[in-house]
Amino acid sequence: MFSIDELRFASKFPFSATSRQVLKLNGFELNRVPAQVLKKAVLLIVFAQKPHKKAEYEKFFSERQIGSSDLLLTDVQAFPVAKILLSAMNQPEFFDRFADLFARQTFFYLSLESNKETLLGLANEMNSKAHPSSKQGFFAQVALTDFLEANFREDFMKLVNQQLDSGTIFLNRNDFCRFLSELSRERVASSLPVSLENVPKNFVDVSRQLKEQLAFRKRQEFDFKSLGSVDQDAFPPCMAKIYSELLAGQNVNHPGRFNLATFLVAIGMPTDQIVDAFKGAPNFDEKVTRYQVERIAGHGKAKYSPSSCAKMREYELCVANCPVTHPLQFYRNQKQGAKTADAQSASE
Amino acid sequence: MVFGLFLKLFPHPWYGFGDHVVSDLDFLTERFRSFYQKTNVSEPPGVEFREFGYGIFGKKISGRHLNFVSLAEFNSFLRSQVPFYVSYSPAFYQYPANRPMAAKELLHSDIVYEFDADDLKTPCAQEHDFWECKSCHAAGRGVVEACSSCGGSSIAADQWVCENCLETVKKQVFRLVDVIENDFGFSDGLDFNFSGSKGFHIHLRGKSVQGLSAKARVELLDFVTGTNLDLQSLGFSESNNALRCTPFRSSHGWSKKILEALHELLESGDASRLAVAGSVSIRTANKVIEDKTAVWESVQKGLFPTVSSKSVVFWKNVLEFVSSDLGLSVDRQTSMDQYKIIRVPETLHGSTGLLAKKIIFNSLSSFNALEESVVFGNDPVKLFVSRAPKIRIGGESFGPFENQETELPEFAAVFLLCHGAATLAENHVPLKEALR
Q1: Which structural domain range is residue A216 located in?
Q2: Looking at the domain assignment, is residue A55 inside a domain?
Q3: Mean pLDDT on B53-81
């Protein structure tokens, strides 16, 4: 059997090897999942889909650690059940939010953890070799190739900002906790979707209800075409630059062309007008351009979206420091600002 | 100059003039064929898992999604099809010839870093490059951002390469190798080759590299180029009105590189540069230089000393200034895009006729690409050259040329023909006659 400490560890870090061992020893079976486990799994998914204030997250995590071994076991079992429900919903955008919840949870518990071995142990449970630092002034060291398995959304996690020497990263305690948190995000995200073979019918029913509930929120997502006619003055600086370069006949690289096309499609510019925008390109071929624009617009199967600001920076297409994280967000803000101003001037 | 414009408008003269149409192309094709017939290309490793692409004259990739089951089959393709360019995927696929890309089923991938003289804006480009405005057709020597005549920014560049360009690129290669070995700790599977044109390719083919995710490759690339550098995350932080850092002996990665560059700036004694770097008066900069030993001792211990009433701003400016010079100018697309295909080492480059020659790292410093990558002979060839700067190739100098006939050894003739700067003299049709 397992100790209460192991159970507590497994409930804090349900993606760990210890958690899998607990489930195995406890004889966890999908056909005999208690109602409270299913309920907890639904709660996890619903809570994960909405951003919360820091205090709300902390309350959510703290409450889950108070209780008997039965309650802790419910938490451990709820994790794989939630993953099955998410997979049955088959909406990949929810996977990232679910992974985000566990990245936050990991950091929350690790920052409260006083035992150094627990921190190093969690790394090893996620197949990442971490050791106490051999150099003074650091808490732990991680091999570069292991470090590169984490998620790098934040600047502090970027490799360029690490203390890197001969293939080893040296981290202080706080950064090591953040590394483990981002590694857990990656591990949870990459473990989804799971196989749906032999999934009980009641799981499918619950996932359908959940999907409908969450789809309601999705329907409320913004339709950029509702912003009215395309307005070049509202383009974010990156898109305005690519657009004017193309019109001027400059040779814009592939990521630039792709992102401009996806942006123009997203804001509702007609295909003919987009194709016209590319006419100035030195190697313009109308047939090829039209085919590609139509594919981007989803006339084939997949519909493509423009890259986020972070990606635009990676492509070296970002040209300004806008207060947004996505070029479409910039356009929406500009258009909505203009609409508000128009409405105000009309009422004056 | 008029003929130069003509060549710009009709870049492949053999496509347009009756009996003369194929001679230049045939000449080059035969030269390339003779090379491949007597050569056995032994690159790339894992040929059966790679995707290949090829190019015709004037188009580097005109077809791709090819696959060869062995190097023998690949060489047979080179001999029979005689491509002007041949590229391969750094990626290994289960089904390299399948389309679309996802159907190839990626197994793992090398990383390739590419340096190109064009990206480094070498001063010698002002001597050997030419430009022409696409709007008003004004033209001139050098490199311009905008037309000096009409101000238009749509410029066609005629870029050339020289030994100076390639020496500048080499310095970047040496710095990259330092990062790969001493920062990344990757010492296995490093291969180098001349690109065949204006730069060098560095292949990382070690097992620890091949399994890295696309995101991990971006992180390595950002480290190499210094992208997303954040001084605060690197330990340069402000407290009690002073800037502090990790002590030098405990600094690694970019924090160490920045401190070393700062030390170099102090040691140079260049007060003017320090004044520019820190946005301070030359008087303040002189004071820092005079105290440079004490300043550096303090910085080594982790404290940037007070030099003026705005010391923190001064030091931050200096750190940003020195770090901006440390990033390497590697081609991002080549390293990031796992689907990009790149020149096969030991094959010919169709824009120069030079070999993309493999280089042993220890001999890189003495490697002269414009001599050692020459594969064609010395038989004299008569050419009409429209425009070319003075070039040095195969240990000899030629030109400059402008609208003139000349006789050159075959290797130099191939170089100019591949560049599109010349035509075989027997094919040359005076402009008036051509337009008649």
Answers
A1: 1-90+193-221
A2: yes
A3: 95
- Per-residue pLDDT at B163: 94
Is there a single domain that holds both residue B381 and residue B369? Answer: no
Contacts of B211 in chain A (CB under 8 A): 145
In a shared domain, residues B203 and B348: yes
Domain with B129, as residue range(s), is 125-158
Contacts 24+ apart (CB under 8 A), B208-216: B208/A145, B209/B110, B209/B111, B210/B92, B210/B108, B210/B109, B210/B110, B211/A145, B211/B108, B212/A145, B212/A148, B212/B111, B213/A148, B213/A149, B214/B336, B214/B338, B215/A148, B215/A151, B215/A152, B216/A145, B216/A148, B216/A149
**Chain B residues bordering chain A (beta-carbon distance below 8 Å):** 134, 152-154, 182-186, 208, 211-213, 215-216, 218-220, 222-223, 226-230, 233-235, 246-247, 250-255, 332-333, 336
Per-residue confidence at B8, pLDDT binned at 50, 70, 90?
very low
Asked if the Cβ–Cβ distance from B233 to A158 is below 8 Å, we say: yes
Determine, for residues A148 and B212 on separate chains, whether the beta-carbon distance falls below 8 Å: yes
CA pair distance A191, B41, nearest whole angstrom: 43
pLDDT band at B119 (very low <50, low <70, confident <90, very high): confident
Position B181 scores a pLDDT of 96
Please state the residue numbers annotated as binding site of A for [4Fe-4S] cluster: 238, 309, 318, 322
Q: Among B166-175, B283-292, B422-431, which is the least confidently predicted range? A: B422-431
Binding-site annotation: residue ranges of A: 238, 309, 318, 322
ipTM attached to this prediction: 0.86
- Using the Cβ of A161 and the Cβ atoms of chain B, whether some distance falls under 8 Å is answered with yes
- Could you give the number of structural domains in chain A? 2
- Judged against a pLDDT cut of 70, whether residue B265 lies above it is answered with yes
Residue where one domain finishes, among candidates A201, A221, A241? A221
